[in-house]
Amino acid sequence: MKGWPQMNAKEKDTKQKIVEVANHLFAEKGFSGTSVRDIAKEAGVNLSAINYHFDNKENLYAQVFQQNHRWMEESIAHIGSDDTIDTKEFSWRVFDFFVNNGSPLLNTFKIFLNEKLDNIPDEAFSDCKGNMGPPGHEFFVKKIRQDVGEEVPYEGIHWAMRMIFGDIVHFGVMMNAPMMKEKIKNQPNFQPEEKKKSIYNLVEAMLDFLKANPDRWKS
Question: I need a labelling partner for 67 at 20 to 30 A (CA). Which of 19, 83, 104, 112 fits?
Answer without folding.
Answer: 83
